[in-house]
Specification:
Helix content is 0%, strand content 48%. The chain has no helices and eleven strands. It starts with a strand and ends with a strand. The relative contact order is 0.31.
Length: 129
Amino acid sequence: EVYFVESGGGSLQAGVSLILSCTASGFTFDDSLMGWFRQAPVTECEQVSSIDINGRPYYIGAVKGRFTISKDNAKNIVYLQMERLKLEDTAEYHCGAAFRDPWMGGRGWTCGDRHLGAWGQGTQVTVSS
């Protein structure tokens, strides 16, 4: 059974840093594209960042330079280090896995592609001024 344990969310002020972590099980972590998605009440679901099986990262423009994705294949954990948080980063963040990578990297991976893998339950990040 595929299972994710996400942690690290919270309520914090703009400008600070936060690290999300996701421990996965039930699938071949090393061979999966891993990523983070976010869903806010008034915006569409979007991929934030992903990391492919070779460790190559992808970031959307809104977080590039502020967020860093990494993974530990030995522990089946993917991290999202978030720095200089902004109000617009407020969202529920979901860890996701794609069991195959038709996009040759995470750039084309969208929220509508959940059927190609699995998602975690999410962890809330709330940024206030």
